[in-house]
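Can anyone check this?
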Amino acid sequence: MQPVAAPPKVPLASEADGRTDTTRLTLAPGEGAEVKFKASKGARVVFKWSVEGGHVNYDTHADAPGISYHGYGKGQASTGEQGDLVAAFDGSHGWFWRNRSGAPVTIMLRTEGAYSEIKRVV
C-alpha cells in the first residue's frame, strides 16, 4: 500500500496577505491624529498601541463608500490598548487619537494581519 499524499495547504488570508507595521506619532497638547488601514470584510488585525509622556482619548472606527462611520470602541485618558480588530466590511479601519495631556506624547502603534496598507490620514 502506497502512502497517500496530503493535499496542498491553502493559506489563510492572514497568512497569504499578512504584514506587520509599526507606526510612530508625536502629538502636541490638544493635537489629534488618525491612522487607518485598508482591509476586506472579516480580515483580522492584531494591534497594540501605547502612549509615552501622557495619555490620549481615542476612537477606533471604520468607514467605506456609503458608510460614513462605524464605531468599534472609544476611550478617554488611555495610555494604551491592544486586541484584535475584525473588519466589519471592506473599507478603511483604524484609530483617531487626541492628546489630552499637558505635554507632547508619542504613540507607538504595532499592527499585524491581513490588510493592504496603513497610513496617517489626519
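Reply from J.R.: I decoded it. Strands lie at 18-27, 32-39, 44-52, 56-64, 67-78, 80-86, 91-99, 105-114, 117-120.
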